[in-house]
Amino acid sequence: MYSKLCSNLVLGVLLLGLGLFQYQYAQPPDTLWTKTFGGVAGDAGRSVQQTIDGGYIIAGRTVSFGAGGADAWLIKTNASGDTLWTKTYGGVDDDYAESVQQTADGGYILAGMTESFGAGDFDVWLIKTDASGDTLWTKTFGGSYWDYGYSVQQTTDQGYIVAGITRSFSAGGIDVWLIKTDTLGDTLWTKAYGGSNNDGANSVQQTTDEGYIVAGYTASFGAGESDVWLIKTDTLGDTLWVKTFGGVSWDEGASVQQTTDDGYIVAGRTSSYGSGTASVYLVKTDAAGDTLWTKVIGGSGYDEALSVEQTTDGAYILAGFTSSFGVIGHDVLLIKTNDLGDTLWTKTIGGNDYEWAYSVQQTTDGGYIAAGYTESFGAGGGDIWLIRLGPSGVAQYDQSMTPSAFVRNQPNPFNTSTNISYSISHSDFITLSVYDVLGRKVKTLANGFTKAGEHSVIFDATKFSSGVYYCVLERGDDFVRTEKMLFLQ
User: Where does the Secretion system C-terminal sorting domain start and stop, copy by copy (predicted)?
Assistant: First the structure.
């Protein structure tokens, strides 16, 4: 069902912090499960977030269900991806949801666009629901032309910030549009940013100074036909600085996040650099928007990142699609990098038709949830696709499952040697290894078919230096357990 961009198995990085251990391979994590949602027509997921109950909320569009040509679609699942409820929102024309976030009251905020309601051809559409998806209020924003909302976030004052594009209130072509509302969706202010050509926003986030960071594209400014555009504003939407990134061709930012160092990570696509029609474009900046590094990832076809998030280890997870790798057509593309943007693993998932991932988030167990679109699987011409990956490195298991194996050592800390005991619930092929803090395997203690039950082995460390080591138990079904050991001579 999936193919790999990286075929060499390489032990990457051992990360130490807060007593947690994670080791990462070039081998990507396993797919724990996938789910499709849809009917006989075209349906697509655009945004996903893990909810406070451990389940997931997905926003997108449906042509299979609802009142009109296309309706906004909200789907709530449990932790296993099974549907708890679904809601459609819309009128007789086309209406879409592009972004969703769970709000502080346990409900949800959706942003998108509506042709059924509002003043113009399409208006920005904001929908607030309760925890069951029932509508509390809706708001439209726009003029006599078309205006789209692509990204929404609840702000610290319990209001909302929405980013998208406006044709109704632009200086030329289309412009970036930023809308700030109060908690009831009433407008506090709006700002348009742009020049004489087309400029647009795809992503917005409130920053730690309570201003905003916006990522998108500009054809009015920069070096090429279209450049990645990064806009930093104050709390009232007034511009503090703008930056463009790109070359002579088409480049675009799809997703932005403020990073833990107060800088920013931007992901999108570039046609100016790389060997294909388009490549994944990853840009890291400092707090002033100045470039720290850029990465171009892809092959000879068309590859694009549509979502990026900083992970708990300070690295990055990207989601998008690829025509360079995978089965055929476009496949879902997931990329994990380190904190410098170097690729740790890539994963493609798809069938014989077309698949995309529009949104990715790290889950509380260190795994990943991605949402998008599939034509290869499901009931209709296109379905919403929800993909759940295990954690990276430690990772080929779901930590919400009841543990069926363990490993521990006594004494710990130890001098000279320690007794490592381990248990497995059923007979299987296992490997028990010891790694140092640089991720190098220094000893294999067991490697073969092992009967169910408890076992033990002595680790003699007399030939090793003092320090921290990790005992790693790997089972044939990809279950992994680790134990931190401290060797003191």
Answer: 411-479
β-pair partners for 345: 336
Per-residue pLDDT of 242-296, as tens digits, reads 999 999 999 999 999 999 999 999 999 999 999 999 999 999 999 999 999 999 9
Burial 240-252 (b: 16+ CB within 10 A, else e): eebbbbbeebbbb
Separation in Å, CA 317 to CA 65, 284, 342: 32, 13, 11
What residue ranges do the domains of the chain occupy? Answer: 33-389, 406-487
**Alpha-carbon span 22 to 425, nearest angstrom:** 23
CATH class of the 33-389 domain in this structure: mainly beta
Distance CA 323, CA 336 (A): 18
CATH 2.40.50.140 fits 406-487, yes or no: no
Residue that is written with structure tokens 């193919």 in the block:
3
Contact 58, 77 (CB under 8 A): yes
- CA separation (Å) from 269 to 5, 342, 386? 18, 17, 23
Cα 85 from Cα 34, distance rounded (Å):
18
C-alpha distances (whole Å) from 114 to each of 124, 331, 333, 399 are 7, 29, 29, 40
Of 422, 446, 435, residue with least CA distance to 471: 435
Q: Are 327 and 351 in contact (CB under 8 A)?
A: yes
Q: What is the pLDDT of residues 404-429, one digit of tens each?
A: 456 788 888 888 899 998 887 777 77
